Write a sequence for this structure.
């Protein structure tokens, strides 16, 4: 069953695909795979539709869709990351983007804002500017109030419900990354696992994910260069029964990075991610059961 929330520019800003029966203490989340680009946004941009998609985690929601058959829900955004980024603080804003002064509560000094990738991004991948001119602050508020806040409100409800059912919950935040660094001087690993340097997830779950990926023949890095974004940091509080693990997939494994079309590698990757999802679910189920049942 799919659920959604309305917005002025989106009939369904996000989708939740639920299993027939919830049997796993895990929520898979794809916040950057949205591919519905509002006409007014494209018209106001200096980029064409393909260029705007450079920051999109293309088809990541599809790659992890098998989790639903394994008893875990999948939540994914339908709005694009270039429009509003829910993997940021709610008001992580660049003052140089807007025609109005920002509120005092805005975080204008983060490294993400400096790189142009705040809550309302200024650039797409490779630092290409999105807008020819400053935009009204009201535009940012509309996106934050109608998309960002409902997304996180639903995410919190889902995590709370799963934790209440199982005693603990794991959110797997699913992403993709360019195959090479911005300066193209080095090639990235096939996968990067992020748990904020062992702060947001039980180590046994991370170890299981890394071991399964390695057995599938992939190279795996942990926390470098991606240790986990705002979602991982915010929702990963193991002492309270909330665990979070970020997974970054090298786009070259399944995607033509120039045309953004799937390659022949997609099907193989899909099958292997199915194995990883199953292993993560088994590990989390075992880990959380053990913590809920103290030894006699």
């Amino acid at each position: 069953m799919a659920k959604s929330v309305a917005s002025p520019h989106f009939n369904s800003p996000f989708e939740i695909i639920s299993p027939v029966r919830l049997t796993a203490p895990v929520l898979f989340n794809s916040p950057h795979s949205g591919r519905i680009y509002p006409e007014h946004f494209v018209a106001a941009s200096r980029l064409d539709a393909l260029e705007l998609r450079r920051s999109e985690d293309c088809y990541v929601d599809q790659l992890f869709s098998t989790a639903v058959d394994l008893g875990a829900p999948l939540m994914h955004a339908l709005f694009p990351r270039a429009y509003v980024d829910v993997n940021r603080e709610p008001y992580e804003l660049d003052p140089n983007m807007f025609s109005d002064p920002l509120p005092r509560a805005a975080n204008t000094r983060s490294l993400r804002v400096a790189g142009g990738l705040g809550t309302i991004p200024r650039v797409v991948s490779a630092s290409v500017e999105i807008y020819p001119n400053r935009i009204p602050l009201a535009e940012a508020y509309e996106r934050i109030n109608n998309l960002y806040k409902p997304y996180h409100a639903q995410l919190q409800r889902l995590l709370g419900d799963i934790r209440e059912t199982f005693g603990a919950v794991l959110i797997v935040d699913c992403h993709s990354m360019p195959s090479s660094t911005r300066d193209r001087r080095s090639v990235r690993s096939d996968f990067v696992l992020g748990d904020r340097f062992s702060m947001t997830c039980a180590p046994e779950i991370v170890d299981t994910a890394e071991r399964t990926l390695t057995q599938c023949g992939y190279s795996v890095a942990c926390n470098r260069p991606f240790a986990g974004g705002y979602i991982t940091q915010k929702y990963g509080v193991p002492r309270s029964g909330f665990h979070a693990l970020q997974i970054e997939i090298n786009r070259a494994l399944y995607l033509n990075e120039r045309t953004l079309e799937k390659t022949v590698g997609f099907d193989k990757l899909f099958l292997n991610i199915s194995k990883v999802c199953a292993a993560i679910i088994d590990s989390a189920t075992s880990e959380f059961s053990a913590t809920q049942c103290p030894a006699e």
